[in-house]
Amino acid sequence: MVGIIPDEESRALPDRYIHLVRPGDWERPPGFGETLAWWSNGGDQDPFFRLSEDPSEPLAPTPAAHRFAGFVEDANAPTEAAEVMRDASMTLMPETEGAGLFVATAR
To answer: Which residues make Cβ contacts (< 8 Å) with residue 17, sequence separation at least 6?
Structure first.
């Protein structure tokens, strides 16, 4: 999900919930920094999906797609602080269609 939330409130969210973060809740996985640099620098311009041999088949994820998926999963530990902050962010998003709301899903 992608949505627009007010700048000041988004900047305040981490400070508001930092007290919920406990030692050991999340540790940087091996290779996390390298993958962050890879992603920040455009992921080597590697495509995330490729066409299958059979045009009736769905697009197939590439190694770059799997690397990015693992990176996102590693960065989003299911901690109390993350869940509370995610819920707080959701309450700041508009609830109806219009300016400031965009939602995309993919299987």
So the answer is: 81, 84, 85, 88
